Amino acid sequence: MSHTDLLHRHLRNAGLPREEQNGEIYAEDLVVEFPYAPDGHTRKLEGPEAFLAFFSRISSFAEGFSIGSATLVSEGDRFTAEYHGSATFKSTGLPYEQDYVLVAIVKDGKLAHLKEHYDPLRVLRAMGEIP
Q: What are the residues facing 110 on neighbouring strands?
């Protein structure tokens, strides 16, 4: 499976109920990192089940979550993707607009390591934690 296909399948999992997600694209030893996550927010997940449970919770706090088309640069067993996400946070009614950069490592045709970079201030604003 190409890096583009893996990325698209990964992004389609965002916000879906767990039973509708495609977990076959993740390696059993998957590690997902969010190095810029604000204090008190998830910074690291291990294993596909932990990650997919996290991903499925998006719809519990954000509505209308959508991800725009991605730009992908691929080399060997790694790729980097840039994409934009939009939603409205349910608890505040505030809009959420975010630009993401994902760095991925593929092992045996599956996503093995994901590191997603984003602006944590945009999360905190949408949550109403900062003005």
A: 107
Q: Distance of CA 95 to CAs 62, 64, 92, Å?
A: 9, 10, 9
Instruction: Find, among 107, 101, 99, the residue nearest to 77 by Cα.
Output: 107
Bridge-based pairing state of the strands 44-46 and 71-75: unpaired
Cα dist from 35 to 32, 73, 109, 128, whole Å = 10, 21, 25, 21
**Measured distance CA(61)–CA(48) in Å, rounded:** 21
Token pair, residue 125, equals 């604003």
Q: How far apart are CA 64 and CA 72, in angstroms?
A: 24
Q: What is d(CA 72, CA 85) in angstroms, rounded to the nearest whole number?
A: 16
Which tokens belong to 131?
A: 């003005």
Give the alpha-carbon dihedral of 76, 6, 126, 59, to 10 degrees: -160
The string of pLDDT tens digits covering residues 23-77 is: 999 999 999 999 999 888 999 999 999 999 999 999 999 999 999 999 999 999 9
According to DSSP, the residues that pair with 62 across neighbouring strands are 89
Write out the two tokens for 64.
Answer: 């209308």
Give the residue carrying structure tokens 């999360």: 123
